[in-house]
Prior knowledge:
The protein is of the alpha+beta class. The chain has helices at residues 20-34, 73-84, 112-125; strands spanning 10-13, 44-51, 56-60, 90-99, 102-103, 130-134, 139-142.
Amino acid sequence: MVEKQITAKIHFCTIQELPEAEKMLVAFAKEAAIKAYAPYSLFRVGAALLLENGQVVTGNNQENAAYPSGLCAERVALFYANANWPKWPVTCMAIAATSVDGFTARPVSPCGSCRQVLLESEMRFATPIRLLLYGEDAICRVDSAADLLPLSFNKGYLRP
């Protein structure tokens, strides 16, 4: 038996420590979260993407009484960006969430499905996506979505 250790480098910082462009992206994510349609969970999530061409795209979670017909903020934003700017990779994504008590104190991480879609986008464009996971008390900065999904399923498994 061989044991291997898998690690991920995640930076913790405050909003003040981010560059101006990333602060702006977090602000867009927070604004998108407030506009989310989440009448069932009351947990609103917003995502803001920065494309390589400078375009900013936002998305938010969209719930539906017929679960699981809704969609997460990250995938709403990524699918919209890929549909409208198919040649431009995402370079950075900020994610923020709010509940009945306001914005979450701790950073909220993407669900497994969103992690898989983020990874596919990285592979599609051969460009890492920096993630800014916002929390009122701290921000997690992850240099690549691949860091959140070790041992991931990818196109390499589909080819003999």
